[in-house]
Amino acid sequence: MSQSMIEQPNVIYLKDYEVPAFLVEQTELRFELEEDQALVRSQVRYARNPESSNRQHPLLLDGHESLELQRLSIDGEVLSEKDYRRVGEQLSIPNLPDHFTLECITRIEPQNNTALEGLYKSDGMFCTQCEAEGFRRITFYQDRPDVMALFETIVVADKQRYPVLLSNGNMVDAGDEDDGRHWVKWQDPFPKPAYLFALVAGDLECIDDRFTTASGRHVSLKIFAETKDLDKLDYAMTSLKQSMKWDEEVYGREYDLDIFMIVAVDFFNMGAMENKGLNIFNTSCVLAHPETTVDAGFQRVEAVVAHEYFHNWSGNRVTCRDWFQLSLKEGFTVFRDSQFSADMNSPTVKRIEDVALLRTAQFAEDAGPMAHPVRPASFIEISNFYTLTIYEKGCEVVRMLHTLLGAETFRKGSDLYFDRHDGQAVTTDDFVQAMADVSGRDLSRFKLWYSQSGTPQVSVTGEYDAEHQRYTLHMRQSCPATADMATKQPFLIPVAVGLLDAQGDDIPLTGGQTTEVLECVAAEQSFVFDNITVEPTPSLLRDFSAPVKLRFPYSREQLVFLMQHDSDGFNRWDAAQQLAVGIMSELVVDYQQGRTLVLDSALIEAYRQILNDASLDKAMVAKVLTLPSEAYLSELAEVIDVDAIHQVHRFVKDAIATALAPLFLQVYQANTSAEEYSPDATSVARRSLKNLALSYLMTTEQPEYLALALQQFKQADNMTDSQAALTLIAHSGFEAEAAEVLASFYQRWQSESLVVNQWLAVQASDPKPDALARVEALQQHEAYDASNPNKIRSLVSVFCAQNMQNFHNSDGSGYRFLADQIIVLNKQNPQIASRLLTPLTRWKKYSAEQGALMKAELQRINNSGDLSRDVFEVLSKSLA
Ligand code: PHE
Ligand code: ZN
Fold first, then answer.
1. Is 59 in the pocket of ligand 1 (CB under 6 A)?
2. Where would one find coiled-coil regions in this protein (predicted)?
């Protein structure tokens, strides 16, 4: 029997929360970094927690099997093995006084840490990742966010190899030792939980800048990277300064230390980490340069730099009581960074992108085996809960509060929240309470958004009474059962509504406003509008005012009308999406029943109108003319027919391209400019429209358009244009040219790791039938590194999550491939393994045969033995 079957991982429940038995006053750390080990000495001053009910409670320290305990002493007295107990990976020390200092020396092997949690090596440098529970891989500690302490850290290492030694807070002392080693001492004046601890040691260089806060404090800003990447840091620095200013202006939040540092590392499980004063970033989220980074990459850098910076208040100054409250910091911080990005770029485009992600991926999560509320009630492994629900839906929940309260009251609420809880570890209830207190509203029903999982559905119908000039909207809400929760109570759903007259103008509503926020709180509810002189067309859920699936029986004419006239930019886009979804869903049925596919000309005509409308923002045009993705169509489908969706998508795109080719060509040419590259919103918009036009043209597989794409590929002076052309050519049926551009691209960019990742991703997402063989071959390529999460994501994740028709090949080869990857990664890097599993977990949404093949692979992983907690949890929920 394998070990995992004997020791079933524990489920941890929110309802079992207890305050820590001891509080920490001060944590002093000393790291001796060497090539084959690190010695960590921690000296921690503990005091019994007056709020703990049990005065006899032992001290429970979290640890990990990889820790080698070398010495444990209390107030200078060494403990022997009978003085403490090992309970699983924890240490339990009984019979303690109310105040004492515990010294602990552990030996760890960062160079062998492939999980990338705790202290590990990335490309020759030491770095840490402690959220959520990585600190316990460094030393024995109460590794929980409600234990906050002042940290003092000394890092000792070889001076030549590791000239730069960093930790949180301010550098207070440094010195050389005789043996070629040196040390630096850091002090963090703000109490923090262990998950915000960070350390970096490496041969790094940095760019320097400074920022003066609103109150006149001078902050030194440093962004560190390897020398070769020093030229790719300017955009992150600009973004950082903009974020600092924005947070002062919009939230009244000032930075609080004398120094703020960012370090770029190549081996990282996630995007970035908000460690106090020392953010650590995946290179993919901080490096940017026109020659190597696409527009979306620039925007990602801007957003992630802002996100991590904003955590300094929403996360660090006020942190989470326990990990069930993860969305307290993540949902709020995503909301803050989304407001920031909206302010820096186009708000409508930002909203469209966020909603598209939510609707495809978060809604799918709700419909799958890992469904959970924004505040989960239980988990086995917290790393599995850094999800779209916690982040993106959590953001939507905060956004709804903002909508319900209005910007001004919301700001008062956030001020009160930061004020009231500064230096504390709190809950989502505390956050909502601050909003309730400033608004005087009872938000108890609203809080169901935190405790109930699932995507609510709202069905709306309209009724016009000409005689009384009255328009009524009838709403019904329900929420389907999710894997974790059978029944739900009605939510408080803010539905922002406008009514359009026959000309497409907004009809003034209550108080003359053109958009009114209706609050739907019951399973069935009606809303009456008086003095409506003609039957209106309703514009519903403007700006996507709630994370729900809203249905209204629009005719195609009404959708076209909304596309052309709605004053709400988001709903103009959404009308186009609904129009296309309706048409494509019918075509999927036609395809399944063997009928000839014919595209409703309404879609072509609507697209033609948009292309001819010079008044529209180019980024909006590009968004409106982008067909609903195959992933979105899959999410909407009852049973996913991958092949039908794929064929229909191709057919529709081709039919539009063929009908509108001259227009697309015009748009392409009109937006090809010789201007110098800039990642500003207007230029990004122009490129996105141009490359969308090229993608339609390339769908037709006409040699003249191939020539255009080849020309763009050769002449591009920026990665956005170069990669767009590369992808289109590589994915086309022009095989010789495809091979040629892929080879020349690699030749040109092989020394740029992030560009090589894009090159891998382009091949992994190739819809042509030989993609799997290609992916397997690329795993042997010199450019691949099976221990680097960014490489795994670019090749394996992209293939399994984005190359639908190849991953779901009916011979099961895609599933087998993924299971093989997971069996290896389960031991090497459980977090990545567990994330990679996602596509297989959705097996119930596919046909019986397809689902059986997927399930069989899940079972094979399950039988492979020694499952990590991460993989165990996802598997057991998927197979339940
Ligand atoms: N807290 C990080 C963020 O949201 C994400 C993260 C989680 C990074 C866990 C690493 C590990 O920005
Ligand atoms: Zn975050």
1. no
2. none
CA 306 / ligand 2 centre spacing (Å): 10
Q: Whose CA is nearest to atom 7 of ligand 1?
A: 131
Q: What H or E segment, with its residue span, contains residue 125?
A: strand 125-129
SS3 content of the chain, % helix, strand, coil (to 5): 45, 20, 35
Enter the pTM of the model: 0.98
**Cis omega before residue 115 (within 30°)?**
no
Q: 235 with 301: CB under 8 angstroms?
A: yes
Q: Supply 666's token pair.
A: 């015009």
Interatomic CA distance for residues 636 and 217, integer angstroms: 52
Q: What backbone phi and psi angles, to 5 degrees, belong to 277?
A: 70, -5
Give residue 267 CA to ligand 2 midpoint distance, Å: 18
The 10 Å Cβ neighbour count of residue 179 is: 8
Q: Considering every ligand atom, which ligand is closest to the CA of 323?
A: 1
Is the minimum distance from the CB of 274 to ligand 1 under 6 angstroms?
yes
ipTM given for this complex: 0.99
Ligand 1 proximity of 334 Cβ (cutoff 6 Å): no
Using the mean position of ligand 2's atoms as its centre, give its distance from the Cα of residue 661 in Å.
43
Residue (of 450, 448, 846) closest to 645 by Cα position: 846
Active-site annotation holder among 103, 308, 330, 392: 308
Helix (H/G/I), strand (E/B), else coil: 214: coil
Beta bridge partners of 22: 48
Structure tokens, 627: 């067909």
Q: What is the pLDDT of residues 102-121, one digit of tens each?
A: 999 999 999 999 999 999 99
The verdict on whether 226 is a catalytic residue reads no
Q: How far apart are CA 22 and CA 25, in angstroms?
A: 10
Q: Please tell me the distance from the alpha carbon of residue 134 to that of residue 136, in angstroms, as a whole number.
A: 5
